[in-house]
Amino acid sequence: MAADCIFCRIVAGTIPATKVFEDEQSLAFRDLHPATPVHVLVIPKEHIASTAHAVESHASLLGHLMLVAAKVAEQEGLAKGFRLVANTGADGGQTVDHLHLHVLGGRSMTWPPG
Ligand code: DGP
Fold this sequence. Notes:
By secondary structure, the chain is an alpha+beta fold. It is built from two helices and five strands; from the N terminus they run H-E-E-E-H-E-E.
């Protein structure tokens, strides 16, 4: 756990969040500022600053997060599709330095992103 990390505090339960899924390795909760009708963040409980900070030993955890994201999408009724986003670093638009997948859905989306 990183002491100054908002998402570590959500994992620890010291900051509230609306959880939609949890297991030993991961947590999924609703984004505070939803960009789409369904907007859930899937995070590892372990503090990893970003995808750029992940190492080989995280490979199975990263795969697990993708599977959790798909499970959350199914649970949220996103049968028509959804978007997974992992903003990474300043140019990637990352604002919270704890690796997370955005599960976005509930409306059709355009490409490329802004
Ligand atoms: P990113 O910009 O990719 O780092 O996404 C961070 C997201 O985290 C952003 O969409 C807003 C969300 N967020 C920030 N602080 C909190 C919080 O305290 N609770 C919840 N549920 N979401 C948060």
